[in-house]
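Worked example 4.2. Below are the chains of a multi-component assembly; read each line carefully before continuing.
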Amino acid sequence: MIAETPTPPYYAVIFTSRRKEGDSGYVEMANKMLELAQKQKGFLGAESARGAVGITVSYWDKTESILKWKNNVEHQAAQKSGKEKWYKAFKVRVAKVERDCAFGC
Amino acid sequence: MIAETPTPPYYAVIFTSRRKEGDSGYVEMANKMLELAQKQKGFLGAESARGAVGITVSYWDKTESILKWKNNVEHQAAQKSGKEKWYKAFKVRVAKVERDCAFGC
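Applying the procedure described above to all two chains together yields the following C-alpha cells:
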C-alpha cells in the first residue's frame, strides 16, 4: 500500500480533491484510471486515501511520462468528467522527489 | 482543506504510513503536531487523509525549514513514539513542487 519507489530522484504528482456528493460513476472510473496508469511507461507506484479531502500521489520516472499520462485519451475523458461531475475543487502539484527515508529517518 | 499554497517552487513532504491497531494517543499527538507545524517558519499548509494508508502532505518554503521542523524537540519526541507505538511502516519523501494547477489543468 506504500509505494515501493526506487532511489530518488523521481517525480510525484500530488492530486488533492474535494468531491461532490454521490458517486456518479466515480469509484469505477478511479479504479479504471489506476489500472490504466499502472500500464503506462514510467509509472512507479501510487498511494491513495480519502477523508475530508482525497489525496492520490502517483510516482513517475520523469516529467515526460507524466505529460504523456495527462494526455492519454481515456485519461483526458476522465479528467473532463472530473471537472464536470465529481470534483468541487482539486489541485494537482508536480514535484521532484529529492530524497526519501523510512524507519531510518 | 486543500492547502492554499503560493506559486511554485516550494517543497512538499509526503508522509505515507500504515498504522498499528488502536489509538495509543495517536490522534491527540497528530493534532498537536499539526498545530505546532503551523507555527513553524516556512510552513505553507498541509493536507491529510486516511484509508488503508494515511497520507499527510505538508508544504514548506525551503528545505532548511523542513530540516528545522524535523529537528524540533517536541516533533522529535513524536517521531520516536511513531516508530515505537503507532506505525507499522511509513515513508517520508521530500519533493520540490515545480508546478501546480487546478480547474485550469
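Take a moment to check your reading of the output against the notes. Chain B has a mean pLDDT of 97. DSSP finds three helices and four strands in chain B.
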